Amino acid sequence: MKKDIYKFIRHSIIFLVIFLITATSYFLVASFYSEIPLKVGVQWIKPFFDHKIKLGNNISEPKLILLGGSSVDFSLSATKMEKELGIPTINFGSTASLSDYIFHVVKEIAKEGDTVFIPLEYHYYYCQRKGLFEPVTLRERYILYYDKEYYNSLPLYDRLAAKFSGFRDLIRMMDESNWEYSEFEDLPASLTINGDEKNTEPSLKPPKVKEIDWPIEFYSSFESDFESGYCVQELSSFIDWSLENNIRVIASYPSLYDFKGAYYEGRYPKIFMLIEDFYNKKNVQVVGTPYDFLYPYEDFFNTGYHLHSEAREKHTDKVIELLRDPLSDMTEMRLE
Fold it and tell me: Strands 256-257 and 294-295, how do they pair?
């Protein structure tokens, strides 16, 4: 009996040692190959953020910050909002694939007295924390190379998960043909002085608009897991940080392709109400409804979130009217 126990312990120790050696070796290989190859395809984000941060920090008075993914970047005109509302406005939209990282980077420009307007894409309510060996997302690819300070501030598990890429990612990272990339020194030329996207006229619209083949898919347990979701918790923390720093947050909903009336049926009304209830609990004002911002195919530029320039003007007009009253105190302050 004792021999069996000793044998089991010995085999367990051998297995544990082999596992630790294998896992450590995998991590070291992934760490070595996780920078230059993963930089390909994300190198545009650095000058993109640098430009918008510079624009934001050049404003010394209270400002309006439009925060979200590419829906904000493409579908809202900060230039028009600044003109109509009389408040300095920065378009700080980027890409929803960065998930919770946007709540970190916007702190570079958000100051006391500012208002942050968040018509977040629905991705922000169901995005998940990266797990070990799961595919490396745009978020990890960016922070591993361009924001080491933020990466080093993450909990140990998140730092490990960022580099423990899946086997397919690791093979791709080791392929030297994926290491070639060009810097985007002139990227800010595609942005206005308020951070809006240029060159989105209907005449430049590609043949096929993406992300319109089916409505948004929320995972099956979304409703029951909502408040414990990774990005919802990060959003909640950002709202708390904003309130602590005397920064107002106003929420709304993104522009979205009206997929054959699907969003009026099934789970969607309940999910939309769940999002509104979340903001109400956080004492965040919500303007408009999801149904105010559903648009036909003809209004979109290249995805079912990105309006072309003409539709952007109409969408921005709608948002301006919704924000006039909540932002009246900022307008009056500038007039004094």
Answer: parallel
The span from the CA of 27 to the CA of 21, in Å, is: 10
The model's pLDDT over 68-91, given as tens digits with 9 standing for 90+, comes to: 999 999 999 999 999 999 999 999
Please report which residue ranges of 194-297 form alpha helices under DSSP H: 222-225, 230-244, 268-281
DSSP secondary structure string for all residues of 274-312: HHHHHHHHTT-EE-S-GGGGEE-GGGBSSBTT-B-HHHH
Residue 84 has which token pair?
């109509």
φ, ψ of residue 216 to 5 degrees: the values are: -55, 140
What is the extent of the structural domain holding 238? 62-130+183-335
pTM (two decimals): 0.86
Residue 196 is part of a domain; what is its CATH number?
3.40.50.1110
The C-alpha R_g of the chain, in whole angstroms, comes to 23
Domain total in the chain: 1
What backbone phi and psi angles, to 5 degrees, belong to 66? -95, 115
Residue 137's Cβ-count burial label (10 Å; 0-12, 13-18, 19+) is middle
Burial (CB count <10 Å: 0-12, 13-18, 19+), residue 132: middle
What DSSP assignment string belongs to 111-135? Answer: -TT-EEEE---GGGGT--PPPTTSP
Place of tokens 């903001």: 279
Contact 145, 279 (CB under 8 A): no
Do residues 329 and 115 make contact, with C-beta atoms less than 8 angstroms apart? no
